Amino acid sequence: MITEEQIEPHILRCIRPFLGQSLRQVTYACLLHEAELDQISAPDFYFGGEVVMQFDGTQDPLVITWDENAGWEEHFSVQARTTSAFNAGCLQPFDASCAPIWKPLIGQTLTCVEVLGFITSPQIIALQFSRGRILVGCGYRTTFGDGDDIIIRASGSAEIHPEIVLLHKEKECLTNRSSKLGNPAVTSMLNDDVINDESDRFTD
To answer: Using CA atoms, how far apart are residues 72 and 76, in angstroms rounded to an integer?
Structure first.
């Protein structure tokens, strides 16, 4: 199973400063001509760009997107960063703050982050807020797993590849942050509502 040290540069190093901060705004940065505003609130919406989250108390945004050939066994993986992975002009932003999946989380504090994936690559970042939980990851259309679509789902409504497990858990203000479970019974955990590689991504 991949280790915390392997996940650190791709996700943890970037995402830690946002723990304990309140979510202010969410933007879906979609590929050009990929989506319309009236589509982004659909419960099965997916897209090929990135999710951009602004938090109070931080200057940079939290950007979650897919990565390609990042050193894992799978071709695609999820990554967290503070800048876009795409060249300027490749993406069209849509304010998703009022989308049903995000609206209840605006103003809520990010208290915990979990990294889920195959034992050989990270695929999903689970964001636990003070009053809600959401999954953001890569996949193919509506199913989380090895793919170059971005999928956002509430905990109890996600289609997840059966081999995906919990790889790491990071909580706000804990001295011992690491919890690597590797539990294949990840679906029951997900239903419980309790990298900075700065290289540009070229698209046609």
So the answer is: 8
Instruction: State the number of CA atoms in the 13 A half-sphere of 64 facing the CB.
Output: 30
Closest by CA position to 140, among listed 161, 119, 114: 161
Q: Where are the beta strands (DSSP E) in 75-204?
A: 76-81, 91-95, 110-118, 121-129, 132-140, 143-144, 149-154, 159-160, 165-171
Give this prediction's pTM: 0.86
Give the residues of the chain that fall short of pLDDT 70.
Answer: 173-204
Is residue 1 within 8 A of residue 167, CB to CB? The reply is yes
Instruction: Find where tokens 């700065």 sit.
Output: 198
| Residue linked to tokens 């509430």 | 154
Nearest to 81 by CA among 44, 136, 1, 132: 136
Report the C-alpha gap between 186 and 31 in whole angstroms. Answer: 31
Q: Which residues does residue 167 pair with via DSSP β-bridges, in sequence order? A: none
Structure tokens at 85: 């992975």
Tell me what pLDDT residue 173 has.
59
What's the half-sphere exposure (Cβ side, CA atoms, 13 Å) at 59? 0
Inter-CA distances, 57 with 25, 126, 162, 170, Å: 13, 21, 37, 19
- Dihedral sign, Cα of residue 146, residue 152, residue 153, residue 155: positive
- Spatial distance between the Cα atoms of 85 and 61, rounded to a whole number of angstroms: 13
| Tokens coding 175 | 């001295």
* Contact between 179 and 167 (Cβ < 8 Å): no
| Number of neighbours of residue 34 by Cβ within 10 angstroms | 14
